[in-house]
Inverse folding.
DNA sequence: TCATTAACGGCCG
DNA sequence: CGGCCGTTAATGA
């Protein structure tokens, strides 16, 4: 359904849509990471995030976006494809399987929220970073031999935002993992050398 | 003890 | 120059 849609390239922090100007479209992420946030007392609170291969904005098919939400690119670059909801509703009759895909997308989002809740409640800051790295690598990493490449890589600030900790903590955790030889990284990509050992470092 | 925050300096596009 | 990263010191739960 998205095959024909042109790919839109976004820079980090670039707004895709918000609750005021939804644009009445849903999107598919084709590369990178998109996050949905709300500002509370001047501080940014993460609602959800979407990675490559996922649909985004499916709530709009059934109702309104919750107020105060902004949806922005979290990696540099991030690529998406747009699908107007009007077009979607016209063609849904001839493409019933797409309705299932929307449902699956909502389930994925729900599962990820639960996963993040467990992370916040059960793990310390270091474990939260590692836990995100493991789950994100499993979902979005490209396997190369026994290793995995995550590219593009969110900045340490974004990783901290997602893991519920600060930029400095992410930096120190990542450097420690690199010192142990479990990962390698620079500003372009992350290479996970030993996903199994990384998984051992945090429960769940 | 663990984590957050500020601050500063360095690096890169 | 602006954005990002690495490190350290101060602070406090």
């Amino acid at each position: 359904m998205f095959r024909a849609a042109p790919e839109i390239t976004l820079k980090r922090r670039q707004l895709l849509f918000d609750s005021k100007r939804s644009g009445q479209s849903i999107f598919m992420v084709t590369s990178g990471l998109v996050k949905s946030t709300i500002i509370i007392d001047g501080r940014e609170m993460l609602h959800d995030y979407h990675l490559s291969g996922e649909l985004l904005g499916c709530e709009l098919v059934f109702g309104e976006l919750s107020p105060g939400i902004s949806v922005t690119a979290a990696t540099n670059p991030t690529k998406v494809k747009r699908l107007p909801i009007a077009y979607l509703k016209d063609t849904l009759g001839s493409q019933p399987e797409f309705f299932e895909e929307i449902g699956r997308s909502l389930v994925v989002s729900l599962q990820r929220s639960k996963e993040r809740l467990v992370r916040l409640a059960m793990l310390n800051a270091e474990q939260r970073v590692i836990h995100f790295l493991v789950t994100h690598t499993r979902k979005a990493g490209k396997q190369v031999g026994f290793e995995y490449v995550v590219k593009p890589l969110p900045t340490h600030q974004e990783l901290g935002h997602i893991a519920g900790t600060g930029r400095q903590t992410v930096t120190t955790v990542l450097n420690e993992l690199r010192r142990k030889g479990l990962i390698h990284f620079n500003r372009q990509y992350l290479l996970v050398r030993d996903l199994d050992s990384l998984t051992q470092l945090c429960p769940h």
Notes: Residues 124-126, 165-166, 168-169, 187 of chain A lie near DNA strand B (CB under 10 Å from a C1'). Residues 96-122 of chain A form the longest helix (27 residues). The mean pLDDT of chain A is 93.
